[in-house]
Amino acid sequence: MKSGICGTDISIVKGHLPTPLPIVPGHEFSGIVYGLGDKVDKDLFFKRVTCEINTNICGICYFCENGIPTNCIQRQALGIDVDGAFVQYIVVDDYLIHEIPDSLSFEHAALLEPLAAAVNTYELMPFTPSDNIVVIYGAGKMGQLIAQVTKQYSSLFKHKVGDPPMVVVVSRTDEKLAIAKKNGADLIINSKKEDPVAKIMEITNNIGADIVVECTGNPKIMDQVVKSTRTRGKIALKSTHGLPTPINITDIVVREIALYGTRCGPFEKAKLFLASDLINLDDLITKRVGLSNINQGLEDAEDSTNIKVIIDNQK
Asked: Could you state, in order of their start, the residue ranges of all structural domains in the chain?
């Protein structure tokens, strides 16, 4: 079993994101099915699988009946509301399971959950032919995935006609920016070295970006995010740090900027990206630790030069 450390896990450990206590974090994971309940399909035994995050789905509420069970009013998130994946063995409902091919490593399969969340950015937020410049604040795991998805989304799912948009990635870490550039970002901006808002205004003739995605995990960044967005542009919000976030509502209203909150996404579409070799996950895994060394892994995940720390749950 392999699992990934997410920014949400760090927020839980720090106490920034309220959760029931005690709690076992972890919601990005993959492994082999070693046991089955009496009513579960026996063919699942010993299958290689990954897992969705939302459990305790009722199947009868408004959201379930309208095809969005990830927003079920009774749902509980693994590793957030109920015990998660930072264990040697985990028990989950069978409807959360997705089989993975032998060609997909367990490390990569553990990243299917965040990749699905990246895909969901454009499932919920309209992606139109006029969206020519996309700015992504944050070059951690989610920012890297969204940058790659942005370049490939229109060609794979035909939601946007025309050339892929220009992708701009903003971060304070040169190492992360270099990886974003290697994987398709058209422009990288180190916000420690230059004002990202001024640079974005320069390249857009003082109009602003069509789409701005916030995935820094930093509640103080929203002022720059809003200022970087053009009038009647769109902002996608991905951070779940649990902290109060100052935001200029007046500017958003006056300039008619649309906000989109997106979280969990479609695993099947994420699997299509991987099957099409459109996403590079190797560069995103920058550290590996055993479960017995989880505290070191959490420290490593906070190191600004690391993108994704993978846990070997059997070590």
From this structure: 2-111+281-312, 118-261
How far, in Å, CA of 302 to CA of 152, rounded? 29
DSSP state of 36: -
**How many Å apart are CA 56 and CA 92, to the nearest integer?**
10
- Tens-place pLDDT, residues 68-92: 999 999 999 999 999 999 999 999 9
CATH superfamily, with its number, for domain 2-111+281-312: Medium-chain alcohol dehydrogenases, catalytic domain (3.90.180.10)
Q: Which residues of 100-125 are buried (b: 16+ CB within 10 A; e: fewer)?
A: beeebbbbbbbbbbbbbbbbbbbeeb
* Nearest-angstrom CA–CA distance, 169 and 183: 11
pTM exceeds 0.85 for this model: yes
Give the chain's length.
315
Alpha-helical regions (H) of 163-210 = 174-182, 196-203
